[in-house]
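Hey,
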Amino acid sequence: MATQQGTALITGASTGIGATYAHRLAHRGHDLILVARNEAKLQALARQLATETGVNVRIVVADLTQPADTAKVEQILATDPAISVLVNNAGTATLEPLKAADVHKLEAEITLNITAPTRLSHAVLPGLLARGHGAIINIASVMSQMVQPGNTVYGGTKAYLLHFSQALAKEVEGTGVQIQAVLPGATRTEIWSKGTTPLDALPPEIVMEVDDLVDAALVGFDQKELVTIPSLPDAGDWQRLLDARNALLPNLSRNKPAARYTP
């Protein structure tokens, strides 16, 4: 029997933030569809959560940098009426100067961090809107706000995901569908083992444990936050940034150049 909470589909679910979301949402009563590349880890997690919570857990082995695998997940999202939550968590990070980076690796990063969540959101959205409830949770990053060397592509992809979430929230306003963008800071996950900066090289006071990160993100979700930044002590700082951007809007597009550009 399906649960009353519906089914949550989580990408990048085999470890780290995705696996922790799986634990939390299972304990909240959601059935699960867990998507990742590592079948063995997915199977182990599925068995554990089914035993602990009694929810139904399905696994989908997929590499979301591959169009055929992404299409497979899109089909599930578009056709399963039980799906109530999509967590776009799968992602990767390249933190190094552009001239030194492997361009093929960067292309895969753009596909995973931008193309996949866009396509999956597009696939699930019509069903959520038709049912009048549900949520899309996009795991972005505080790196979306950091313009610095070595962050050309990763920060850009996460800035896209933040903007995507903010614009999508306006599109679905009043429909019963909730959008949330979560901006983690440095979090103790396996993503650091694949990058150029070891986690141990970071000051410990800036590294959050993954359980704390996901628990905070879900508090923000329950509070209907559009943007949740678990590390930010004063939410007013973010609101002031939004206010400053909104103050720019009347002057961003005008029929004459600004006076400083007069020849």
